[in-house]
Amino acid sequence: MPTQEIISLELEKRDVLGKSVKHLRRKGIIPAVIHDHGKESNVVMGSYVDVLKVYRHAGKHHPVEISVGKDKYTALIKFVEFDPKHNTLKHVVFNAVDANQTVEAEIPVHLSEDIPATKAGLMVIHQIDHVIVEAVPSKLIDELIIDCSSLIEIGDKVTVADLVVPEGVVIVTEPEHTIAVVEETKAQLSEEAEEETVAEDAADEVKTEEPAK
Question: Vertex 16, ends 14 and 21: CA angle to 5°?
Fold first, then answer.
């Protein structure tokens, strides 16, 4: 198994609280908090560019090595807040983790590229894009790719139970949850509906032409 990539982030202690943090954002600084095993939370801040880059890279599944002055933390991103109007990052919550303790994390799930159903012109609906797993931080993985070679006909599906995970990783999400399912395309459904309408109209015409008894 390849060595886990190290993602680092430098933050600073923050004195600005409450509504005053909007002034930080205008300066390109993001407010953040580090929760540390029941201890008093650490109120911090960092460069917007650096924090956004780390979020895009680490997501909510990859440990981040955080430096706040002389203090060091290994943490997972627990929550992010975005401005819905401008789609900009507003706030980040980190959870410090113990290297020897199992943690829960959201792992992205991607479909394999070779899907027979799509080659046959059918539609594959991706219903969930991540699962919750449990592992020690060093065992956390960046993604899971599910084999979709069994998706051939309408109604075929793959579930969480079909995922294969490395040793040391346990999936917490319920195994019966559907990850992807094969359905008809809108065009196929419209064509079937049109054929049914034509058949019904033809049947009505036959009934109308039948002589009265």
Answer: 110
Q: Let me know if residue 210 belongs to a domain.
A: no
What's phi and psi for 136, nearest 5 deg? -70, 155
Sheet holding 157-159, edge to edge: 123-126, 178-183, 157-159
Structure tokens at 201: 């109209």
What token pair was written down for 69?
């002055």
Residue 136, domain extent: 105-188
Picking from 188, 180, 178, the residue whose alpha carbon sits closest to that of residue 120 is 188
- State the Cα–Cα distance between residues 165 and 105, nearest whole angstrom: 14
* pLDDT digits 0-9 by tens, 18-55: 777 888 888 999 999 999 877 888 999 999 999 999 99
CB 153 within 8 A of CB 182: yes
**Total domain count, the chain:** 2
Average pLDDT, the chain: 87
Identify the pLDDT of residue 140.
93
